[in-house]
């Protein structure tokens, strides 16, 4: 899309600073996450929890840089989670499977007090503090602006299987050690 550059990256957590129009990010730029058991209330006695494994918490961050002709106009920013083969990821929601997708209007403000031709900047962030119930594999967050996308407007990441907990002690009697 002429006039707009998009940068997508992943962080553990982020906060928006509205006064400066900036983001404060924790552990930005990661590309590998590990499946883990989510924090869940204890299961009823005798009933093990049937909670799926989830990724670590994550924040998906999109930085936009726009030429002056694109500034101060509403742009439709969309970001969706895709599998390695480009399929939209769906997770179970209250009303059935739902695509992991966010769409919002965003306005890139024109910069004040800078030379003519200096681009405007804006940022958007989506936090997933509970992680996502994904299978091990390669995924990517893909950004789109006004329905247009480019391959580099994405952030790829790998979901590693859960670590096996260490075993302490000895095997029960009668079982091989």
Q: Brief description of this entry?
A:
Helices cover 0% and strands 45% of the residues.
Structure, described:
- It is a single chain.
- With about 180 residues, the chain is mainly β.
- The protein has one domain (about 5-40, about 55-160): Immunoglobulin-like.
- The chain has no helices and twelve strands.
- The protein has strands at about 5-10, 15, 20-25, 30-35, 60-65, 75-85, 90-95, 95-100, 100-105, 120-130, 135-145, 155-160.
- The strands form four sheets. It has a five-stranded mixed beta sheet with strand order 4-12-11-6-9, with no helix packed on it. Strands 1-5-10 form a three-stranded antiparallel beta sheet, with no helix packed on it. Strands 2-3 form a two-stranded antiparallel ribbon.
- The N and C termini lie far apart (about 60 Å).
- About 20% of the residues are buried.
- The mean pLDDT is about 90.
Write the layout of secondary structure elements.
Layout: E1 4-11, E2 13-17, E3 22-26, E4 32-34, E5 58-66, E6 74-83, E7 90-93, E8 96-99, E9 101-107, E10 120-128, E11 137-145, E12 154-160
Order of helices and strands: EEEEEEEEEEEE
Number of helices: 0
CATH class: Mainly Beta
Main beta-sheet annotation: 5 strands, mixed
Strand order of the largest sheet: 4-12-11-6-9
Compute the number of structural domains.
Answer: 1
């Amino acid at each position: 899309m002429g006039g707009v550059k998009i940068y997508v990256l992943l962080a553990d957590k982020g906060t928006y600073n509205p006064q400066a129009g900036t983001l404060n990010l924790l552990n930005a730029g990661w590309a590998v996450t590990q499946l883990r058991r989510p924090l869940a209330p204890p299961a009823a006695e005798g009933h093990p929890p049937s909670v799926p494994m989830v990724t670590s918490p994550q924040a998906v961050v999109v930085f936009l840089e726009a030429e002056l002709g694109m500034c101060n106009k509403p742009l439709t920013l969309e970001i969706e989670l895709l599998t390695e083969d480009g399929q939209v990821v769906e997770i179970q929601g209250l009303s059935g499977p739902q695509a992991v997708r966010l769409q919002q209007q965003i306005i890139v403000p024109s910069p004040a007090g800078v030379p003519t031709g200096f681009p405007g900047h804006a940022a958007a962030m989506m936090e997933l503090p509970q992680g996502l119930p994904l299978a091990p594999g390669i995924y990517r967050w893909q950004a789109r602006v006004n329905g247009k996308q480019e391959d580099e407007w994405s952030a790829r990441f790998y979901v590693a299987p859960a670590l096996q907990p260490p075993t302490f002690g000895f095997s029960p009697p009668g079982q091989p050690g």
